[in-house]
């Protein structure tokens, strides 16, 4: 398959990239500071540019989405807007603009996270964004068939415990290898409207 992967330079994106390449797929990587195409998908105009440059693909895979982390008492309206643009609108636009570019039975795989289900202090923006993406996936799936859309919703990565484990107290970590298999399931499988919780 021909796949475009957004966020390929990050911890998750690198693992997904390696997995997809290892399964024989052709992958175009997109990122803000690295990749075959360098652009910020938080800007809908850059998403349009991306699709113009890559043409038609079989699948769009996202492993990117930024949200601010602060106590609610320190959050501003701009912080919540940034979370919406960085993780929700960017991925909604990948689907909306990609409908004409993805194969008839192609797929979109978006990224959310455990905070949609298990909130933690300072993570209200991430919880909001993750929940919104998951709701969008379920709604979009009933409209875009036979194209498919799913989301991968992991907890903290085992490989990132040293940096982020303190933010997820008592939560069971997940190995990146398991998360990448959820991406494979979404891209190569037949399901739609699913949120793969890991």
Automatic annotation (TrEMBL):
Keywords in alphabetical order: Oxidoreductase
Top-rank lineage group of the source organism: Bacteria
Matching InterPro entries: NAD(P)-bd_dom_sf, SDR_DHRS6-like, SDR_fam
Pfam families: adh_short_C2
Gene Ontology molecular function: any one: oxidoreductase activity
Entry annotated with the keyword Oxidoreductase: yes
Similarity-based family: Belongs to the short-chain dehydrogenases/reductases (SDR) family.
Matching PANTHER family: DIHYDROANTICAPSIN 7-DEHYDROGENASE
Name of the protein in question: NAD(P)-dependent dehydrogenase (Short-subunit alcohol dehydrogenase family)
